[in-house]
Design goal:
The complex is a heterodimer of chains A (659) and B (120). Chain A has a six-stranded antiparallel beta sheet with strand order 8-7-6-11-10-9. With 659 residues, chain A is α+β, with helices and mostly antiparallel strands. Helix content of chain B is 38%, strand content 22%. Chain B contains four helices and five strands, in the order E-H-E-H-E-H-E-E-H. The longest helix of chain B has 13 residues. At the A-B interface, helix 10 and helix 11 of A face helix 1 and helix 4 of B.
Chain lengths: 659, 120
Amino acid sequence: MAANLPKEYRSALKDFLRGGGERALKNAYMLGRRSLEQHIGVLDIVAAHHQALASLLSHSNESLPNNRKIIKQASDFLAECLSPFEMAQRGFQESIAALNSLNARLEDEVEKRTQEVRESEELYRTLIEISPDAITMTDLQGKVTLCNRQSALMHGYSDPDEAIGINAGEFVAPEDMLRMREVTLRVLHEGIIGEVEYSLIRKNGTRVPVEVRVTLVRDAAGKPSGFIGVNRDITERKQAQVKLELQARWQAAVAELGQHALSEVDLAALLHRTSSLVAYTLNVEFCELLELLPDGEHLLLRAGVGWKEGMVGNMVVKAAADSQTRYTLPRVEPIIVENTAEENRFSPSSLLMEHGIVSGMTTTIRGKGRPYGILGVHTCHQRNFTPGEANFLQSVANVLAMAVDNRRLLETEAIARQKAEKDNELRLKALAIVSHELRTPLTSIKGFATTLLADDVVWDADHQRDFISTINEEADKLCDLVEQLLDLSKMDAGVFKLSPIRQHPGILIAAAAPHLQALTGQGHSLIIDASDALPDVIADTQRIGQVLENLVENAAKYAPGGTAIKVSARVNDGFVEISVADEGPGVPISDREKVFQAFYRAGDKATLKVKGAGLGLTICRRLVDAQGGRIWIEQTNGPGTIICFTLPSVSVVEKQGER
Amino acid sequence: MARILIVEDEANILKLVSVNLEARGHEVIGAEDGREGLARLRDALPEVLLLDIKLPDMSGWELLKIISADPTYPQIPVIVITASLNSANQDYRLYKNLRKVLVKPLSVQELTREVKGALN
């Protein structure tokens, strides 16, 4: 048995030394140990024997040569018996040495690894520390295990160490919590890199918009152990985004308004729509559209949002010297008020105070010419309106100004068109009258001419003479009418020439007297009364003669035969007033102004039997007006007509010249 | 020959029509306005009416309307003599007795031809 052991042991040891590893070493150790346990008793006996034999041998060396031989053999045997144990012992020693060497190697390895880990950790820490992003490591529950300075600052801590141990989840805004959890779960279970934008609430309660990228961390065994989150402050991006969105919203609102301004027929509807749109877009409680009334002192609340019942359309505010409206009107930029109560550029309006208004903006709706009014917005809480918002308000005001200008233009155009239509109508009417007036004498002329030419009737000399004299008479009428029309046309065209000279009124009337006598000669007496004491006048002799002839001719036409027609002159407030009075039927009061209109013929059936085109007085008025005078029918109670006209005396003309 | 009523306020035109129609054997009755014309129409019993449109008291069209609406007036042919451009706007069918509208200035030949035609 004992002889077998060393072999097994040797083979196990060999196995180990060949590199069988731990298992082989264990095996060798176990075999050695078992062998030693089994033979430990034998070993002790053998050892004792060996010792005894050796001692015996040394003491009986010379006396017992035979014994010595036996003992030597026994000793050799025993030594042989001992050899496997020695070998085992040597094996142990070798294996221990091998183990020691292995251990040393392992320790070296561990030391090396530890060093590497230490270096890599240092690298990570450096990377994390220098990252511009906020980096946070948490355990699976969200407790912060490591973070950099950026992360600490973002969460409201001054030092990363202070942030260790806080729960990152508690810094997520409530409204973002659900989304954050969903993403975290996906990171945990699906191994994705999660991305979330959320509002981070700092330790002090302020908010910051952030974007986080979350990834899972595993331990050495590959088990999830926590998260790494990289947070980025997106305040600027958000602000830019919000600004862009606002600008887009404002632009859309202005564009929408522009459309309405073009298509909306009713200005009031446009103003109402505008105030609603502005209030909605700027998210304000009050909007006002004040129209500057013609007096330039008061403004009417034409449209608005938020005002007390019944105010819109009715309320008028005065633009007092120290009021916000008065302050706003001449200015081109919107006026921004942060706090009405603390305003020192103008006095707070009682209306705004009454509505509890704190902040606001007002701007002028500036069309061509004078401002149309004011557009304003107000809030009940303090609000600092941004330049962008002020620009928006101004843009709306500009669109409105354009709309109002357009409307004014349309109105002006409509009035002009109506006037043109009316003028045209009048012109057609005048043309019809002129045509009729021209055709009537022409009918007689052509009629009697064709009568004379007719070959089925032979006219005697008396008839022939009568017809020819009628033709002559009608031709004269036609001539006069054409003359009058020509005068009026010249006046209309502005080519009518006057030659005024300084002269005494008596001389002026005397110059016309022979014609006047001829007009009244048949049945009326003409009385002329012009005192020498009258001042000189500046007048065109021929044209005033024409006026006098016309007035006297009218008097002679209407006044009964045998009555007097009186032409007189007197001084009237720096002017010389010349009047023509008759004892005819008079002109009805309602017609006393109308008779000066072209083709208007006053009176009843009886007076209308008197023929005339109705141009005489029109021409008279134009002639007198052109010489700085006035012509009218005097208001008299009795029968008869007195037509008066004035001419400026020399003193009046000189005074006008001085001015 | 025939009795002809002419309503015309222009003396010279009344004279023109009268001398010509009388020279051709007709009897001419003149009236200076609408009212007189209507009276003569009833009492003189003319066979043709010559009617001016621009009359002092009413328009010739108004007079025609009165005659057309009242069968007690003799329903005789009417020849209108007008200088008015607006005559073109009138609906002649409204006046059943209207035979012709002559526009001034007119020639005697035209006038006598139309009167002759109205009498046949």
